[in-house]
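ESCALATION

Customer reports they have been waiting on this structure for their group meeting. Please prioritize. Original submission:
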Amino acid sequence: MVKHRLMLVMAYLGAVIGAGFASGQEIMQFFVYYGSQGFTGAIIAGVLFALMGALLLYMAHNHSISSYQNMLAHLFGPKYGSIIDFMLAVFLFLGISTMIAASGAIFSEHLYLSKYLGIILAYFLIVLMLGAGKKGLILSYNLLVPVKLILLLGITVYAAFGLDGNQVTYANSIRIYHSGNWLVASILYVAYNFALAMVVLTEYQTLTSRRQGVGGAIWGGLLLGFLVVIYYIAMVKYLPAVSLYEVPMLFITGQISSQIKTVYILVLWVGILTTALANAYGFSQRIARLTGTKYQTCLVIGMTLALPLSMQSFSVLVGKVYPLFGLLGIIILAALIYKSVKEVGLELYYKITYVITRRWEV
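Update from on-call: job pushed to the front of the queue and completed.
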Protein backbone atom coordinates (compact mmCIF):
# COMPACT_ATOMS: atom_id res chain seq x y z
CA MET A 1 0.00 0.00 0.00
CA VAL A 2 1.06 3.59 -0.68
CA LYS A 3 0.35 4.45 2.97
CA HIS A 4 2.92 1.95 4.28
CA ARG A 5 5.50 2.97 1.70
CA LEU A 6 5.01 6.61 2.66
CA MET A 7 5.40 5.75 6.34
CA LEU A 8 8.77 4.16 5.59
CA VAL A 9 9.85 7.24 3.61
CA MET A 10 8.95 9.40 6.61
CA ALA A 11 10.96 7.09 8.89
CA TYR A 12 14.05 7.36 6.67
CA LEU A 13 13.80 11.14 6.52
CA GLY A 14 13.11 11.41 10.24
CA ALA A 15 16.19 9.42 11.20
CA VAL A 16 18.62 11.24 8.88
CA ILE A 17 17.39 14.85 8.91
CA GLY A 18 18.46 15.89 12.38
CA ALA A 19 20.06 18.99 13.82
CA GLY A 20 23.25 18.62 11.79
CA PHE A 21 21.36 18.33 8.50
CA ALA A 22 18.77 21.04 9.15
CA SER A 23 21.43 23.46 10.42
CA GLY A 24 23.30 23.12 7.14
CA GLN A 25 26.55 22.33 8.95
CA GLU A 26 26.67 18.73 7.70
CA ILE A 27 26.12 19.81 4.11
CA MET A 28 28.78 22.49 4.48
CA GLN A 29 31.36 20.08 5.91
CA PHE A 30 30.76 17.13 3.60
CA PHE A 31 29.81 18.82 0.32
CA VAL A 32 30.02 22.61 0.03
CA TYR A 33 33.66 22.77 1.18
CA TYR A 34 34.61 20.54 -1.76
CA GLY A 35 33.46 23.06 -4.33
CA SER A 36 31.88 21.92 -7.58
CA GLN A 37 32.89 18.33 -6.83
CA GLY A 38 30.71 18.51 -3.75
CA PHE A 39 27.70 18.80 -6.05
CA THR A 40 28.60 15.45 -7.59
CA GLY A 41 29.16 14.08 -4.09
CA ALA A 42 25.65 15.18 -3.08
CA ILE A 43 24.14 13.26 -6.00
CA ILE A 44 26.20 10.17 -5.15
CA ALA A 45 25.04 10.42 -1.51
CA GLY A 46 21.40 10.32 -2.65
CA VAL A 47 22.04 7.25 -4.81
CA LEU A 48 23.85 5.53 -1.91
CA PHE A 49 21.03 6.33 0.53
CA ALA A 50 18.52 4.78 -1.91
CA LEU A 51 20.70 1.73 -2.66
CA MET A 52 21.62 0.96 0.96
CA GLY A 53 18.07 1.45 2.19
CA ALA A 54 16.78 -0.89 -0.52
CA LEU A 55 19.39 -3.55 0.33
CA LEU A 56 18.55 -3.31 4.03
CA LEU A 57 14.80 -3.78 3.50
CA TYR A 58 15.42 -6.51 0.90
CA MET A 59 17.46 -8.47 3.45
CA ALA A 60 15.05 -7.72 6.30
CA HIS A 61 12.13 -9.18 4.32
CA ASN A 62 14.08 -12.15 3.01
CA HIS A 63 14.99 -13.23 6.54
CA SER A 64 11.99 -11.80 8.47
CA ILE A 65 14.22 -9.44 10.46
CA SER A 66 12.34 -6.70 12.31
CA SER A 67 14.96 -5.38 14.76
CA TYR A 68 18.41 -3.94 14.28
CA GLN A 69 19.90 -6.43 16.78
CA ASN A 70 18.80 -9.37 14.62
CA MET A 71 20.06 -7.56 11.53
CA LEU A 72 23.51 -7.12 13.10
CA ALA A 73 23.56 -10.79 14.12
CA HIS A 74 22.71 -11.75 10.54
CA LEU A 75 25.37 -9.47 9.04
CA PHE A 76 28.23 -10.25 11.41
CA GLY A 77 27.29 -13.53 13.11
CA PRO A 78 26.34 -13.95 16.79
CA LYS A 79 29.82 -13.18 18.20
CA TYR A 80 30.82 -10.13 16.19
CA GLY A 81 27.20 -9.02 15.90
CA SER A 82 27.08 -8.70 19.70
CA ILE A 83 30.22 -6.54 19.67
CA ILE A 84 28.83 -4.23 16.97
CA ASP A 85 25.50 -4.19 18.79
CA PHE A 86 27.19 -3.07 22.02
CA MET A 87 29.13 -0.34 20.19
CA LEU A 88 25.96 0.88 18.48
CA ALA A 89 24.09 0.92 21.80
CA VAL A 90 26.83 3.14 23.29
CA PHE A 91 26.62 5.51 20.32
CA LEU A 92 22.82 5.59 20.53
CA PHE A 93 23.09 6.62 24.18
CA LEU A 94 25.64 9.32 23.31
CA GLY A 95 23.32 10.39 20.50
CA ILE A 96 20.51 10.95 23.01
CA SER A 97 22.77 13.25 25.06
CA THR A 98 23.93 15.07 21.94
CA MET A 99 20.40 15.79 20.71
CA ILE A 100 19.16 16.89 24.15
CA ALA A 101 22.20 19.20 24.33
CA ALA A 102 21.28 20.54 20.89
CA SER A 103 17.78 21.35 22.16
CA GLY A 104 19.34 23.32 25.01
CA ALA A 105 21.60 25.15 22.55
CA ILE A 106 18.62 26.14 20.36
CA PHE A 107 16.72 27.57 23.34
CA SER A 108 19.77 29.41 24.68
CA GLU A 109 21.42 30.75 21.51
CA HIS A 110 18.46 31.39 19.22
CA LEU A 111 15.31 31.72 21.34
CA TYR A 112 17.15 33.51 24.18
CA LEU A 113 15.50 31.26 26.74
CA SER A 114 17.00 29.03 29.41
CA LYS A 115 19.21 26.21 28.11
CA TYR A 116 17.76 23.95 30.80
CA LEU A 117 14.21 24.63 29.60
CA GLY A 118 15.19 23.27 26.17
CA ILE A 119 16.81 20.21 27.73
CA ILE A 120 13.91 19.37 30.07
CA LEU A 121 11.25 19.99 27.41
CA ALA A 122 13.03 17.64 24.96
CA TYR A 123 13.38 15.04 27.75
CA PHE A 124 9.66 14.96 28.57
CA LEU A 125 8.49 15.06 24.94
CA ILE A 126 10.71 12.12 23.97
CA VAL A 127 9.55 10.04 26.94
CA LEU A 128 5.92 10.91 26.18
CA MET A 129 6.17 10.13 22.45
CA LEU A 130 8.03 6.84 22.90
CA GLY A 131 5.96 5.58 25.83
CA ALA A 132 3.93 3.37 23.47
CA GLY A 133 7.05 1.76 21.96
CA LYS A 134 7.11 1.12 18.20
CA LYS A 135 3.61 2.56 17.79
CA GLY A 136 4.72 5.76 19.50
CA LEU A 137 7.79 6.02 17.28
CA ILE A 138 5.78 5.55 14.08
CA LEU A 139 3.01 7.94 15.17
CA SER A 140 5.56 10.59 16.15
CA TYR A 141 7.31 10.32 12.80
CA ASN A 142 4.02 10.44 10.91
CA LEU A 143 3.15 13.69 12.72
CA LEU A 144 6.53 15.46 12.94
CA VAL A 145 8.34 14.52 9.72
CA PRO A 146 5.73 15.83 7.21
CA VAL A 147 5.68 19.21 9.01
CA LYS A 148 9.48 19.32 9.04
CA LEU A 149 9.72 18.26 5.39
CA ILE A 150 7.21 20.83 4.10
CA LEU A 151 8.94 23.67 5.95
CA LEU A 152 12.41 22.48 4.90
CA LEU A 153 11.47 22.21 1.24
CA GLY A 154 9.57 25.49 1.12
CA ILE A 155 12.26 27.59 2.80
CA THR A 156 15.29 25.91 1.21
CA VAL A 157 13.90 25.89 -2.34
CA TYR A 158 13.14 29.60 -2.01
CA ALA A 159 16.64 30.25 -0.63
CA ALA A 160 18.18 28.23 -3.48
CA PHE A 161 16.21 29.67 -6.39
CA GLY A 162 14.31 32.73 -5.14
CA LEU A 163 17.17 34.82 -3.74
CA ASP A 164 20.00 36.44 -5.64
CA GLY A 165 22.81 35.52 -3.22
CA ASN A 166 26.25 36.29 -4.58
CA GLN A 167 25.51 35.08 -8.11
CA VAL A 168 28.34 32.53 -8.01
CA THR A 169 28.91 29.87 -10.64
CA TYR A 170 29.23 26.36 -9.27
CA ALA A 171 31.94 25.13 -11.61
CA ASN A 172 34.31 28.09 -11.57
CA SER A 173 33.76 30.36 -8.60
CA ILE A 174 33.77 28.01 -5.60
CA ARG A 175 37.01 27.80 -3.76
CA ILE A 176 38.08 24.33 -2.56
CA TYR A 177 38.25 24.61 1.22
CA HIS A 178 39.18 21.00 2.03
CA SER A 179 42.22 19.10 0.89
CA GLY A 180 40.48 15.76 1.48
CA ASN A 181 38.72 13.61 -1.07
CA TRP A 182 35.15 14.63 -1.97
CA LEU A 183 34.10 11.05 -2.75
CA VAL A 184 35.34 9.78 0.63
CA ALA A 185 33.45 12.63 2.31
CA SER A 186 30.24 11.64 0.51
CA ILE A 187 30.59 7.98 1.56
CA LEU A 188 31.39 8.95 5.17
CA TYR A 189 28.31 11.15 5.27
CA VAL A 190 26.06 8.28 4.18
CA ALA A 191 27.83 5.82 6.51
CA TYR A 192 27.34 7.65 9.79
CA ASN A 193 23.76 8.60 8.96
CA PHE A 194 22.84 5.07 7.85
CA ALA A 195 23.96 3.51 11.15
CA LEU A 196 21.11 5.36 12.88
CA ALA A 197 18.65 4.94 10.00
CA MET A 198 19.11 1.16 10.17
CA VAL A 199 17.78 1.15 13.75
CA VAL A 200 14.49 2.66 12.54
CA LEU A 201 14.10 1.09 9.08
CA THR A 202 14.31 -2.52 10.25
CA GLU A 203 11.31 -1.89 12.51
CA TYR A 204 9.17 -1.35 9.39
CA GLN A 205 9.73 -4.87 8.06
CA THR A 206 6.50 -6.11 9.67
CA LEU A 207 4.49 -3.21 8.24
CA THR A 208 5.42 -3.58 4.56
CA SER A 209 5.76 -6.22 1.89
CA ARG A 210 9.20 -6.68 0.34
CA ARG A 211 8.22 -4.61 -2.68
CA GLN A 212 6.75 -1.82 -0.54
CA GLY A 213 9.77 -1.80 1.78
CA VAL A 214 12.37 -1.70 -0.98
CA GLY A 215 10.37 0.89 -2.93
CA GLY A 216 9.87 3.10 0.14
CA ALA A 217 13.58 2.95 0.98
CA ILE A 218 14.51 3.94 -2.58
CA TRP A 219 12.12 6.89 -2.59
CA GLY A 220 13.29 7.96 0.86
CA GLY A 221 16.94 7.80 -0.19
CA LEU A 222 16.35 9.74 -3.41
CA LEU A 223 14.40 12.39 -1.53
CA LEU A 224 17.28 12.71 0.94
CA GLY A 225 19.65 13.17 -1.99
CA PHE A 226 17.37 15.83 -3.48
CA LEU A 227 17.38 17.73 -0.18
CA VAL A 228 21.18 17.55 0.03
CA VAL A 229 21.45 19.02 -3.48
CA ILE A 230 18.98 21.83 -2.69
CA TYR A 231 20.87 22.70 0.50
CA TYR A 232 24.12 22.70 -1.46
CA ILE A 233 22.73 25.12 -4.06
CA ALA A 234 21.31 27.41 -1.37
CA MET A 235 24.60 27.61 0.54
CA VAL A 236 27.05 28.09 -2.32
CA LYS A 237 25.16 31.27 -3.23
CA TYR A 238 26.38 32.80 0.02
CA LEU A 239 30.01 31.72 0.04
CA PRO A 240 32.29 32.68 1.63
CA ALA A 241 30.16 34.53 4.24
CA VAL A 242 27.98 31.50 5.10
CA SER A 243 31.05 29.41 6.00
CA LEU A 244 31.68 31.66 9.03
CA TYR A 245 28.48 30.56 10.81
CA GLU A 246 27.94 27.48 12.98
CA VAL A 247 24.33 27.30 11.78
CA PRO A 248 24.60 28.31 8.09
CA MET A 249 20.90 27.95 7.33
CA LEU A 250 19.93 30.47 10.01
CA PHE A 251 22.20 32.99 8.31
CA ILE A 252 20.55 32.25 4.95
CA THR A 253 16.98 32.35 6.29
CA GLY A 254 17.86 35.63 8.00
CA GLN A 255 18.46 37.04 4.51
CA ILE A 256 14.83 36.26 3.67
CA SER A 257 13.21 37.71 6.80
CA SER A 258 13.38 37.53 10.58
CA GLN A 259 10.02 35.73 10.62
CA ILE A 260 11.29 32.99 8.30
CA LYS A 261 14.39 32.65 10.47
CA THR A 262 12.16 32.10 13.50
CA VAL A 263 10.16 29.45 11.65
CA TYR A 264 13.39 27.72 10.66
CA ILE A 265 14.47 27.58 14.30
CA LEU A 266 11.32 25.50 14.86
CA VAL A 267 12.38 23.25 11.95
CA LEU A 268 15.78 22.78 13.59
CA TRP A 269 14.19 21.82 16.88
CA VAL A 270 11.82 19.31 15.26
CA GLY A 271 14.87 17.83 13.50
CA ILE A 272 16.54 17.41 16.87
CA LEU A 273 13.46 15.66 18.27
CA THR A 274 13.12 13.16 15.40
CA THR A 275 16.79 12.16 15.64
CA ALA A 276 16.56 11.90 19.44
CA LEU A 277 13.49 9.67 19.07
CA ALA A 278 15.44 7.20 16.90
CA ASN A 279 18.37 7.16 19.34
CA ALA A 280 16.19 6.78 22.44
CA TYR A 281 13.98 4.08 20.94
CA GLY A 282 16.91 2.00 19.70
CA PHE A 283 18.79 2.27 22.99
CA SER A 284 15.78 1.55 25.23
CA GLN A 285 14.70 -1.42 23.13
CA ARG A 286 18.21 -2.86 23.30
CA ILE A 287 18.53 -2.50 27.07
CA ALA A 288 15.04 -3.94 27.63
CA ARG A 289 15.89 -6.97 25.54
CA LEU A 290 19.26 -7.44 27.24
CA THR A 291 18.05 -7.10 30.85
CA GLY A 292 14.47 -8.34 30.57
CA THR A 293 13.32 -5.06 32.12
CA LYS A 294 10.13 -3.38 30.92
CA TYR A 295 10.74 -1.16 27.85
CA GLN A 296 9.15 1.95 29.41
CA THR A 297 11.36 1.61 32.49
CA CYS A 298 14.48 1.38 30.32
CA LEU A 299 13.31 4.43 28.38
CA VAL A 300 12.98 6.60 31.49
CA ILE A 301 16.28 5.33 32.97
CA GLY A 302 18.17 5.83 29.69
CA MET A 303 16.81 9.33 29.18
CA THR A 304 17.58 10.28 32.79
CA LEU A 305 21.15 8.95 32.59
CA ALA A 306 21.66 10.96 29.41
CA LEU A 307 20.77 14.24 31.14
CA PRO A 308 24.12 14.94 32.90
CA LEU A 309 26.09 14.45 29.67
CA SER A 310 23.64 16.68 27.78
CA MET A 311 24.76 19.59 29.95
CA GLN A 312 28.05 19.57 28.00
CA SER A 313 28.63 21.75 24.93
CA PHE A 314 26.71 20.57 21.85
CA SER A 315 29.68 21.23 19.52
CA VAL A 316 32.07 19.29 21.78
CA LEU A 317 29.73 16.28 21.83
CA VAL A 318 29.32 16.36 18.05
CA GLY A 319 33.09 16.50 17.52
CA LYS A 320 33.62 13.39 19.66
CA VAL A 321 30.58 11.25 18.84
CA TYR A 322 30.03 11.72 15.08
CA PRO A 323 33.47 10.57 13.78
CA LEU A 324 33.19 7.31 15.75
CA PHE A 325 29.61 6.85 14.56
CA GLY A 326 30.91 7.25 10.99
CA LEU A 327 33.50 4.50 11.45
CA LEU A 328 30.84 2.14 12.78
CA GLY A 329 28.60 3.07 9.86
CA ILE A 330 31.28 2.14 7.32
CA ILE A 331 31.65 -1.30 8.92
CA ILE A 332 27.87 -1.82 8.75
CA LEU A 333 27.66 -0.62 5.13
CA ALA A 334 30.50 -2.91 4.04
CA ALA A 335 28.87 -5.94 5.69
CA LEU A 336 25.46 -5.10 4.21
CA ILE A 337 26.87 -4.75 0.69
CA TYR A 338 28.82 -8.01 0.97
CA LYS A 339 25.88 -10.01 2.30
CA SER A 340 23.37 -8.49 -0.12
CA VAL A 341 25.52 -9.02 -3.22
CA LYS A 342 26.14 -12.60 -2.12
CA GLU A 343 22.43 -13.31 -1.54
CA VAL A 344 21.22 -11.57 -4.71
CA GLY A 345 23.93 -13.36 -6.71
CA LEU A 346 22.88 -16.75 -5.35
CA GLU A 347 19.21 -15.99 -6.01
CA LEU A 348 19.98 -15.06 -9.62
CA TYR A 349 22.17 -18.15 -10.02
CA TYR A 350 19.41 -20.49 -8.84
CA LYS A 351 16.83 -18.79 -11.06
CA ILE A 352 19.06 -18.99 -14.14
CA THR A 353 19.93 -22.61 -13.34
CA TYR A 354 16.24 -23.43 -12.94
CA VAL A 355 15.34 -21.85 -16.31
CA ILE A 356 18.19 -23.64 -18.12
CA THR A 357 17.25 -26.97 -16.50
CA ARG A 358 13.61 -26.61 -17.54
CA ARG A 359 14.60 -25.89 -21.13
CA TRP A 360 16.85 -28.94 -21.25
CA GLU A 361 14.02 -31.08 -19.90
CA VAL A 362 11.72 -29.80 -22.67
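Sent to customer with the following note: The two ends are 39 Å apart (CA to CA).
Escalation resolved.
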